[in-house]
Design goal:
The protein is 73% helix and 0% strand. It is mainly α.
């Protein structure tokens, strides 16, 4: 028991060290630096091109002219004290920048995870019950079609249809600018209204995976002996499907949910850019363009640690659902 716990702690610390190292070196492998901007992000945007003397001054000020190993040691030392550094672009602590934008991203990711998981399980169960019938074939074809569309393209299609042509949803943002809310309910409704299309885009991009996994696992589970035994006992089909088949089929779905959150954390960069949604995905895009190393490191670290925590939670939930599994 003690040996397993020590092994787990060692693997956890090793994983964290690899994450820290990648977070540090990856931004510095990009061409250029934060003070040698050569092009604007948008047409008409004003840019500031520093002289070589100014650039060297700021490189020295932020410690970017030191050898890489010295910068890495300072980075690790600051991480131990919980200091993520100071954003070069925003001129404020990285942790404050992340806390401004992270809640928006968490809102759409949690919403999309819940919707895609519940919808995928329900549709997968219906498809497995009606296997090889017309509804099953139509559902399969529709889901596979959705799976082939990239999330950013799906977002553009939804934006054009529901925002540009039908004018049912806003084109951009997370709240109505300069809105004077009469209460928290009205404010919450405005936030959900703006988050609707990004959540639907992320949900549809992940729906097929949950649907196929549920359908195929249920079809496999229903061939097992304990399902035949349950039917031989005279249990109704509803009880057999929900209590015996679906419960066992949900185990791989729970595992996939942990990976799904990781995939969405990566895909949210493109989706937030399409909808100009002010989450950490769009902030990461701006940080990469501006070579804001501390902010890139901070956001990537938060994403990596979030995925790690999700996987640990999935392991714990898996163990609760199936006591035979020892984590």
């Amino acid at each position: 028991m003690v040996k397993d716990r020590n092994s787990f702690i060692f693997r956890l610390l090793s994983t964290l060290f690899v994450i820290f190292a990648i977070n540090f070196f990856l931004p510095r492998m990009m061409p250029g630096d934060p003070f040698s901007t050569t092009s604007a992000d948008e047409v008409g945007e004003e840019i500031i091109v520093m002289t070589e003397e100014q650039r060297l001054y700021y490189m020295n000020y932020y410690g970017l002219d030191r050898p890489l190993y010295e910068q890495f040691l300072v980075y690790m030392k600051n991480l131990i004290t919980g200091d993520l550094g100071r954003s070069i672009y925003y001129k404020m602590p990285v942790s404050d920048v992340i806390m401004l934008h992270l809640p928006w991203t968490m809102l759409i990711i949690v919403g999309a995870t819940v919707i895609s998981t519940i919808s995928g399980v329900v549709l997968g169960t219906l498809s497995a019950i009606n296997r090889k019938k017309g509804s099953d074939r139509i559902m399969m074809a529709g889901m596979i079609a959705f799976a082939e569309i990239p999330s950013f393209l799906l977002g553009l299609i939804l934006l054009l249809i529901f925002s540009v042509y039908l004018r049912l949803f806003p084109l951009a943002g997370a709240v109505t600018p300069f809105a004077d809310y009469t209460g928290p309910v009205e404010q919450a409704w405005d936030i959900l209204y703006h988050a609707f299309l990004p959540v639907v885009t992320l949900s549809l991009s992940q729906l097929t995976g949950v649907y196929l996994l549920t359908r195929n696992t249920l079809i496999t589970v229903t061939t097992k002996d304990y399902i035949r035994t349950a039917r031989a006992k005279g249990l109704g089909e509803k009880t057999v499907w929900i209590r015996h088949a679906l419960r066992n089929a949900l185990l791989p779905v729970v595992t996939r949910t942990g990976f799904m959150i990781g995939i969405m954390m990566g895909g949210v960069v493109l989706v937030e850019s399409v909808f100009s949604y002010p989450g950490i995905g769009m902030t990461l895009r701006s940080a990469v363009i501006g070579r804001d190393y501390p902010l890139i490191q901070g956001i990537l670290l938060i994403i990596a640690v979030s995925i790690l925590i999700c996987n640990l939670l999935v392991d714990k939930i898996y163990g609760k659902l199936d006591p035979r599994v020892v984590i």
